[in-house]
Amino acid sequence: MPRDLRILVTGGGTGGHTVPAFATIDAIKSLLSEKYVDIRPIFLYVGSQAGLESRIAVEAKVDFVSIATGKLRRSSNPLKMLNISNLRDACKVPIGFLQAIKIVRKFKPDVVFSTGGYVSVPAVFAANVLKKPVLMHEQTVQIGLANRWSAKVAQRVALSYAESANELPVETRKKTFVTGGVVREIVVHGDASKARARFNFGGPLADLPIVYVTGGAQGSALINQAILDSLPDLLQKCCIIHQCGRQKSATVQDEVRLLSARANLPAELQRRYAVSAFIGDEIGDVYAACSLIVGRSGAGTVSEACAVGRAALLIPLVPTGGDEQTKNAQRLEKIGAAETIKQSELTGAVLLTKVTKLLSEPEHLKQMGESARSLASPNAAFTLAKAIVDLGLNN
Known about the structure:
By secondary structure, the protein is α/β, with parallel strands linked by helices. Helix content is 47%, strand content 15%. The strands form two sheets. The chain has a seven-stranded parallel beta sheet with strand order 3-2-1-4-5-6-7, with helices on both faces. The longest helix is centred in the first third of the chain and has 24 residues, at 84-107. The relative contact order is 0.13.
């Protein structure tokens, strides 16, 4: 008789935490169908209702339950941390923990898989209290605060980069193993001709390079503005596929502004610019067609750029506390796979200059792409899936 393997998955808030989680869920399903045909996986995703994970869970047909969650807004000035938002969110933490205890007790997971983000902490610590094994995965070079906490109680700690282990206490390093960055299968199996057909970049535009601009799932108001400020001149050099984001009210306005700007362009330039709040299953085709990626340097963008072997122009997000995106970008820049623009220096003019220079050197772009591919980990999702399954089966 088939055995059920109950897997509780948690993590979210951004695409960097959420996308690898669902990519790993898919990898677990594939692994079990190929190697463990007598085992049936049952998933439950614990996240935030306001996070990206709630929407993706519905699309992926994965059972989802939300809990209360709070975010610690860090600052180098301790007094600034005593703000209303931090105090309000601090009150949510014990509520989320009690909710997580109830969920874990009812679901009875064989294993808990966490990809980080503040929403993951209550579920991980609830699992620890109820003696359920935890495997956590860190996507970035710099280990996030939530994952630093989770690593203390996890049975296994998966890392995208070997050097990340140096940020953990010696006793925790013994639990680590390296998978590489996890990306969706759909990302690496694209068809450039399909992207050109979808966005009408064929015919007289067939010889123009394509630049893919992305601020991540939530979008980036700064990148959107830089594109807006440089749009007519940029389009003299290339075609652009622009994902402007759809999670925040500001980016909804950005989509309207960008579409309005497109409508005011000469007809021949309008054809060269495609703007959308979100790029879905066509993302693999977009990557296959583009010569250059322009975007933030979150875990998802960096891992995908490496997986598809594409040059990148990165604008790291500099938050109040921590600076993982800068470290992600520096890792690619060090091997010649990317160039960067500091967030404080990003303008339409600077973006135009950088993109124009890169596009004028197609052989250099190819070399950058090959350098990026050297950091790819094509089997990361399946390595992670195997570790999760093994931990669950041996529980």
